[in-house]
Predict the 3D structure of the following.
Amino acid sequence: MSSVDTIAPSTASPQNSPDEEGGIFAQIVKNNPLPIALVVPETGELIDVNIAGCKLTGYTHSELLGKKGHELGIWPNVQQWRNIRAELTGGGGSCTRELTLRTRSGADIDVLASFEMLERNGAPCMLIILNDITERKRMELALHERTAALSEHVKELQCLFWITNLLQTRSAETRQVLQTVSEQIPLGWWKPEETWARITYNDIQYTDESTPADMTPNMTQTITVGADAVGRIEIFTDESEASSPFRGDKQILLATIARLLGDYLERERAGDALSESRRRYEQLIQNAPLGIVVFDRNGHVTITNSTAQSLLQLSGNTALSSIHDPFFVQTQLSSVISECIEKRQHNVVEVSYNRGHDDFGRLRVHLTPICQEDGVLASVQAMFEDVTQHRESERQQNHRQKLEAVGELAAGIAHEINTPIQFIGDNIHFLQDAFQDLMRLLDFYHRSVYELAPSADHPSVHALEQLITDLDLQYLVEEIPNAIIHSLDGVARVADIVSAMRTFAHPATDVKVPVDINQALTNTLTVTRNEYKYIANAEVDFDASLPLVPCDPGEINQVFLNIIVNAAYAIAEKGPLSAEQDRGLITLRTRRQGNEAMIAIEDTGVGIAQEDINRVFDPFFTTKPVGKGTGQGLSIVHSIVVQKHQGRIELESVKGKGTTFMIYLPLEDAQNHTAKV
């Protein structure tokens, strides 16, 4: 047992008197915020109490000194005091207990009391330190109540979760769902083992087999679909449950379950219509004329219709999975779709794609972001449209318009050149005739000088001979006629070119007219001479009896021009010429074969590889280096001959030796035309 003077600060000397010791205790405990008291263990008489102790009990210091706590009513449980005293005097030394004290006003307060045995002036005493825990106990009670309420809410939420999950999963019939819900509802009540639920729908009751038959429902809630009451839910439980503080919450829970059931039954009623609508939607997507592919926000493919499968040449075992598939990477659509996902902007692009066997076509792709109501991107819809034929038609139309414009320009230029060329030709003919006359006059003058002069030494004779020498008259006499002949030949060639241009630039029409194919080939050779004159010779083998062929002059001239230019290019591909015998040869032949006119254009160029022969007429296919060819020339040839003139075209080629194009045009109605174009 310790001495009471150990409580005081160590400033006192060992010789302090008992009164001094009391002063030390007063200094320590007087202003302590915790209630502190000294009590005689045997009697319970209060020796001293600090200010906080008086305030806690409501008594004054004088009212407490020398009094016993149980006599004042501060300590209503006398037996509890006796037990603590017995424990401490029996050698326990100290202990802590939660007690209930009563104040002077009669209010009960909860305290945490610490007891410790001490010595004071050689006699035992008990030190009591109190801590008011009334507020803490109140908060603990409130927490307990809140915990109980939270536990109930958790049960309610679990019940709602189970029921909601069940109602959202359409894996069972309606009657099975209603039966299961009736068995799940009690799990959200205070005492599930003493609670039952019964659901009535279409005059059929769904409940657990253990539901008491003689019980009266404590709670009832109507199930509605729209504005119609279609059933009800009844709860059976004992009286304590029915009168519990959570009854209001349970009524809300029951109303929520009834609303969920109403929504479920409404969905079930609309289920057939929804299934039919979905079936029609899927059928619409699958049978849409446009290819449709839908991507999620991560770029993964979620929907692909049959048109897209066919359009993109996908087999049954091949499926698009994401924007990183080879098709999207090769067509550079991956970056475009990623940009659409990121920026959520509509976009329309055209790409070239391989339709198989290096057959390239054109796709127009419409990219549309699909967002949810909150603006979050849900998916991106890509619609694919094959515009290869459309672009080919546009290209041909543009080409035709360009040819018409060039033809009109060439015809105008040819007309403008034709008139001055005629002047030049006429003047050169005049100069040729005049020069012959001047030569006769000059010869006469020369003979006359020698006849009239007295002698060869006459000054006039010497002057004439000197002038003839200075002017190199013999050279002029010999070369001027040659210059005139060459000029006339050049003028004739210009006239031929102008005539060929005027004929070649004949505007395209929708009406076929009879055309002299031999003359058309001659004109084309004249116009294209600059393409082959340095690398090849041209030979013709025409059938003079070939009748006029009904066709479009402008377009058929375009066919001949494209093939002859290709022939010149094929010959040039063999490399530079080393001798005259290395020059290539372009041969043009015409024949009548039955009811067709056959036109053969043969070259001695590099030829075409066998694997490329079946593709030379495909749009955009070319064997020329990048920048040298567009892959459109022979495509136009095929379109003009086959589609517009109902003819046919054949091709023979040997790699390294040359190529022959054979064009067959029908002669029908040719005998009905008498004019020649």
The two ends are 143 Å apart (CA to CA). The first helix runs from residue 18 to 29.
